[in-house]
Amino acid sequence: LNIAVLAGDGIGPEVIEQALKVVNAIGKKYNHEINLTHALTGAVAIDATGNPYPDKTHEVCMQADAVLFGAIGHPRFDNDPSAKVRPEQGLLAMRKKLGLYANIRPTLVFPSLLHKSPLRRELIENADFVCIRELTGGIYFGDKGRNETRDKAWDVCEYTKPEVDRIVRLAYEYAMKRRKKVCIVDKANVLETSRLWREVAQGIEKEYPEVETEYLFVDAAAMRIIQWPEGFDVMVTENMFGDILTDEASVISGSMGLMPSASIGLHTSVFEPIHGSYPQAAGKNIANPLGTVLSAAMMFEYAFKLMDEANEIKDIVNKSLAEGVVTVDIADGGKAFSTSEVGDWLA
Amino acid sequence: LNIAVLAGDGIGPEVIEQALKVVNAIGKKYNHEINLTHALTGAVAIDATGNPYPDKTHEVCMQADAVLFGAIGHPRFDNDPSAKVRPEQGLLAMRKKLGLYANIRPTLVFPSLLHKSPLRRELIENADFVCIRELTGGIYFGDKGRNETRDKAWDVCEYTKPEVDRIVRLAYEYAMKRRKKVCIVDKANVLETSRLWREVAQGIEKEYPEVETEYLFVDAAAMRIIQWPEGFDVMVTENMFGDILTDEASVISGSMGLMPSASIGLHTSVFEPIHGSYPQAAGKNIANPLGTVLSAAMMFEYAFKLMDEANEIKDIVNKSLAEGVVTVDIADGGKAFSTSEVGDWLA
Ligand SMILES: CC(C)[C@H](C(=O)O)[C@@H](O)C(=O)O
Ligand SMILES: CC(C)[C@H](C(=O)O)[C@@H](O)C(=O)O
Fold first, then answer.
1. Are residues A49 and A156 in the same domain?
2. Given a cut of 90, is residue B88 above it in pLDDT?
3. Which residue, of A46, A163, A292, B72, is most buried by count of CB atoms within 10 Å of its CB?
């Protein structure tokens, strides 16, 4: 199993280290040869090479069966969004060059953490849905610019039918293995790109008569995620809407530090926790490694199709929660373990 | 006081009727001559004229000191977002032609309705913020289209400095009368239009040294609205982000049926409840009129600068809540009054 490891910035290296302990333990137990190749990305890559996603890193990713990713972002870039080189550009370049067209984020609820949710318990107890966000198109990658006097700016949102087709199809395939419900989120009452999405979706819908399809405008979806999260099974949407809605959805579980994600690509796939670089905690050995560990579980499931291995990782994470072997963010006044202690225990 | 009345579709006419009872009662008590001119908009206008915002309606609005608006939208258009003529087009035409550049939505919490919020009570008890959404620019009004083979679509998001300037300035003026905090929501790490917003905002920020300014990416804002709504005072953002975030914010109060809004314009201003046409309830005399009544209060405040009248309306609404003279959506097992009974009681 050839894994490219991109630890990145902030708490990235610390949480990745724990996930690798678990990956190696699983490799040993199940007799897999694990080859790890580390490469630079983010602010650390800017410092070393001037480029947040260096060619060398891209090579490493292209040759890997999967990429395990930590986080990128550094506060020194935060107040200057127009800086020439920014860590986020590395992320966008990686998505585009690896063809990571589908970002998959399960919204999982952990019973022992329900009280951490901002939502009332009875609304989320049975929430279990997946957001699938298109990741290489839309307004993120369209033409953008300024007029000569720089007092007018534009960003173009663009989609082609094949781009919509592959991701909507993925959502239906996903739903077939779950509760057979797809919710397509768009703004077809205003946007032409959304009308294209809806046209394509209406075609695919017919190929999956067993799946119940719903179309929801993005503003209504933003409400429904908080009003009735249990109503969703698989949600699929375009890049910008997905950015907003997946982050909104990640909050309702109350367990953001535990949330994994997968970005399915044409060339390889990337697995990363959703929590970001969390610079305030960097270097303190307090960050929660479980999101990264669960991302590794997704890697075994999606990239390697090794379900036993994936399930064993999920089980041990549940056990760590049940036994209270957790970091300070979820220790709730009980004993808080350090990042590395949790990693060692899991491994 | 010349008021254009656009009742629109669904429950629009019923809730507008109650608001007019209150407006007339206030006019009588405070000795204002109230001139009401009714005009068509939405699906009813399509039926009558083929146009959801007929020229005649526009004339009436242009001559009015303020527009009181019900709701538009009809289910027969819902599954066909590409229909040639749609009620929403009337809304967008009205916004553009009246120059309604700023949509203002207070997020109010009513103590007696806190248990209706999907959020835990302790998170929202002291929530009190205002979302200001740019309403006549951005991706709503930019160029949109398809290529010849119709397998590629685009929508252009565009902003000019003057467009950003006037709305950000409005937000600061608003904040000066409140808790002096402005949160500017954008996606400056990805979008050129957002970088323009931030440039303009950073200039205006300097003119208001007393105001505390914060810049938040839209994905982070979508999280913060649920995690810590009490942290906001005045939030300002572009059209599409505002569409999503204002709807998300409207849910957290648990009192959507009571939420008013104002759209400040170059030519006149429009006051409307946020709840929409709610076709399932139309004609049943059960819809909650309080959102429209509170929109009338905003009309007295913003369009007529008549604070006593505005406050008297707000007071009587609070009294109706305290005494349980409310419609079925908030009656909570107690006696439910009809739409018109609530209107009569308030008047
Ligand atoms: C950092 C930023 C460019 C990125 C995005 O908007 O896609 C992030 O918010 C995410 O969701 O991964
Ligand atoms: C109906 C639709 C065009 C409209 C919008 O997106 O602006 C609505 O959602 C709103 O917020 O008033």
1. no
2. no
3. A292
CATH number, domain containing residue A141: 3.40.718.10
Report the pLDDT value the prediction gives residue B81, as an integer from 0 to 100.
64
**Interior/surface letters B117-155, b for 16+ CB within 10 angstroms, e for the rest:** bbbeeebbeebbbbbbbbbbbbbbbbebeeeeeebbbbb
Domain end among A252, A276, A305: A252
pLDDT at B82 over 70: no
Q: Which residues of chain A are modeled with pLDDT < 70?
A: 79, 81-82
Which residue does chain A place closest to B193, by CA atoms? A153
DSSP state of B236: E
Structural domain total, chain A: 2
Is A7 within the bounds of a domain?
Answer: yes
Same domain, B313 and B216: no
- Gap between the Cα atoms of A39 and A5, Å rounded: 6
- Domain match, A304 and A281 both: yes
What is the predicted pLDDT for the residue at A82?
Answer: 67
Residue A269: predicted pLDDT: 98
* Catalytic residue positions of B, numbered: 140, 187, 219, 243, 247
A-chain CB neighbours of B190 within 8 Å are 88, 92, 139-140
Instruction: Tell whether B206 and B310 lie within a shared domain.
Output: no
User: What is the tens place of the pLDDT at every residue in A53-70?
Assistant: 999 999 999 999 999 999
